[in-house]
Amino acid sequence: MKKLLTIASMAAILMFGACKKTKKTDGAVAPFTVEQKQNVAYMYFGGTWCGPCGAYGKPTKQGLHENATNANAVFISFQVKWSYSDPFATQTTDATAANFGVTGVPTAYIAGGTTFTKTGFFTSNAANISGQQTTMNGVYSQTALVNGKVTPSLAGNALTVKSQNKFFSASSDTFYVQSYVTESNLTATQYQDGSTKLNIHDFIWRAQSGSNFYGDLLVIAPTAGQVVEKNLNIVLQDIFQKGNCDVNVIIWHKKGGKFGIENCYKSKMQP
What we know:
This protein is of the alpha+beta class.
């Protein structure tokens, strides 16, 4: 009987030990994974005071945004004031237009991978949408060098943007990361608005991380499979309707002395 008890005790100890060993692996951190997918950055420049922006620019970007093909595209509208008045324009949006070399509106840049295309708008919205969608499709067809995921965290008006990025191939370039907050469903009179969302403005630039145009340094000469994380901080204003805001991340690359947009991704600020 004593021998049987001893054997039973040993079995219990082994079972307990096995449970403890399994528990230690429960906290293991899974490797960061993300789809190797090339997305499109659609950087729009316009103004509420601008007739062609209302007639051709705003309807075109709305049509593109509503196309299911562009569900993962990052749309950012930089409203400019120049010598006019626009409720959404700021010194930063005017400076951004200058950095992009914008001298007239409406203008858009369609970018991602090897594409960095400046496009104007013409009198046919259908032709604008068709032509610009073709350019966007060309970006989608490329093999992504890097892609990532954004996790926003809010504490009052302090927004922390966790950016996780995976490089699928090695590169000798330098990469920067910038986060932009956009807000939709904003109301303001648009001169000559020809869109179906009359005087409603979507994905309007509201704030961004850092003070450098291209954002913060992310990595120099990444290796294949390398994962790089970066936390970015943005201070929001009380007037922002956070439920209508997106958090967008743009990954810039610098090759030689030239900058381009490598990839982009986004998330709702609040679920």
